[in-house]
Amino acid sequence: MDAPRTSSVPVTGATPAHPEEAILEVLRAGERFLVCSHSRPDGDAVGSVLAMGMLLQQMGKRADLVTADRVPAIYRSLPQADAIRTALRVHGPYDAAILLECDGFGRTRLRGLDEFFIINIDHHTSGRAWANLNWIDREASSVGELVFRLVKAAGATVTPEMATCLYTTVLTDTGGFCYGGTRASTFALARELAEAGANPIRVAQDVYFSVATSKMLLLGAALTNLHREGRLAWLWVTHQDMVRTCAAEEDCEGIVNYALSIAGIEAAAFLRELPERRVRLSLRSKGKVNVAAIAEQLGGGGHENAAGCTLEGPLSRALEEILAHLRPSVAGLAVEPG
Ligand SMILES: [Mn+2]
Asked: Is the peptide bond before 41 cis (omega within 30 degrees of 0)?
């Protein structure tokens, strides 16, 4: 479970008519900013935090970039990736903290954020106007796309380094231009970023062709636990599997997609047994099942096609719990042979 959310920041509950301008006003007025994203940062979190840091630098501001967990290996070659510090508590003379794709403080796993004026930029279905200043656009391909719009609104230059970070956010958050939400404008954005200096081949090689051996071994373990029931597929790894394959948490990233990729499957689940017997759950859908709604019922969140939450163990109990939620969601869908 994520840490309990603090409510000491006054909630405006409002998204301004021109969020870019409202955010830029705060940025122009201040000197020093904190930029954070969610724990277990993914490509969108890492790329958008880095690009936001670069924007603030261009504006002549100081920016500290912090996440609770370290940058996954496949994103460590991104420009200035070393600038992201790992911490569990933040403090400092910040004029504001910019939180990228977090639907509350809990998502960051960082303590001390409630001291600051919070700017919340998000594109998740579960995104809410919970902070002092909110910009939530559920149509955006990635939170990086919103940072890109902010860069444009600021009249700043999209440098090749910034373009590389932002291209990574779009590529990874759309699953390589495969997931729902990929539209013509997504390709227009990708084109603009490639023209600004992002190298699509280099980014794809770093992200998709730099897999750790431990991840492949873990995938093997997960696939031996692959099950199918009609339109549902699920697979899991035990804590023992994690230990045996020397897998890191980030090696679990994307394993759920192997279950989803099966013909005829509409929704898929990947369960990972945590050392303290709780279970981390990843849900994916091809579009007919809203897995964000299911994850939210279980205390998590995400997108309609990609969501997650943490459940109480043991693994068998967590599996029964998620199947009890998933089965009705596909009950109305005809079963096709697969
Ligand atoms: Mn995202």
From this structure: no
Torsion, Cα 84 89 91 95, to 10 degrees, reads 60
For ligand 1, the distance from its centroid to the CA atom of residue 38, given in whole angstroms, is: 10
Question: Is residue 254 in a domain?
Answer: yes
**In which domain, by residue range, is 247 found?**
213-330
- Report how far ligand 1's centroid is from the alpha carbon of 170 (Å): 8
Distance 226 CA to ligand 1 centre (A): 27
Measured in Å, residue 204 CA sits from the centre of ligand 1 at 17
Instruction: Answer yes or no: do 97 and 232 share one domain.
Output: no
| Of 208, 238, 258, the domain-final residue | 208
User: How far apart are the CA of 252 and the centre of ligand 1, in A?
Assistant: 17
Question: Distance, CA 143 to ligand 1 centroid (Å)?
Answer: 5
Arithmetic mean of pLDDT, 167-173 = 97
Kindly state whether residues 266 and 243 are assigned to the same domain: yes
Say how many Å lie between the CA of residue 335 and the centre of ligand 1.
Answer: 31
CA of 42 to the centre of ligand 1 (A): 8
Distance, CA of 143 to CA of 70 (rounded, Å) = 19
Say yes or no to pLDDT of 4 above 80. no
Pair 160, 98 in one domain: yes
pTM more than 0.90 = no
Q: Cβ(146)–Cβ(165) under 8 Å?
A: no
**Domain edge (last residue) among 160, 191, 208:** 208
- Alpha-carbon gap, residue 165 to 171, rounded angstroms: 10
Q: What's the CA gap between 307 and 314, in Å, rounded?
A: 21
pLDDT at 9: 39
Examine residue 127 and state whether it is found in any structural domain, yes or no.
Answer: yes
